[in-house]
Amino acid sequence: MYARISVEKQRERVAALEKEVAELQGALGENEDANKIVQDHIKLLHRYNEAKDATQILIGRLAAMKGSTVRQIHKDLELPEQD
Predict the structure, then answer these.
(1) Which N-terminal residues, if any, form the signal peptide (predicted)?
(2) How many Cα neighbours within 13 Å face the side chain of 4?
(3) For 22, 31, 46, 74, which has the most beta carbons within 10 A of its beta carbon?
């Protein structure tokens, strides 16, 4: 038993969704491609993660050289302990 939606309500809903899409496209920019923006963002996140991983390796090596802990190196360098 599904509730039936009148044709009028369906049209109103479609019109509301089309208006929302137009507003979002306007906020994004008329000539902007949302998929490209997402892909670019993903690439930037990969670069960030690679740089962060490399930094953590170096911090780990520095801690080993100093006979310290990674946590202590983070404190000494005033780095956050977590993201």
Answers:
(1) none
(2) 3
(3) 74
CA distance 73 to 66: 9
Q: Report the distance separating Cα 14 and Cα 21, nearest Å.
A: 10
Residue 60 contacts residue 70 (beta carbons within 8 Å)? yes
Rounded to the nearest integer, the mean pLDDT of the chain is 90
Domain boundaries, the chain: 1-30, 33-83
The span from the CA of 81 to the CA of 83, in Å, is 7
What contacts 73, CB < 8 A, 6 or more positions away? Answer: 59, 62, 63, 66, 79
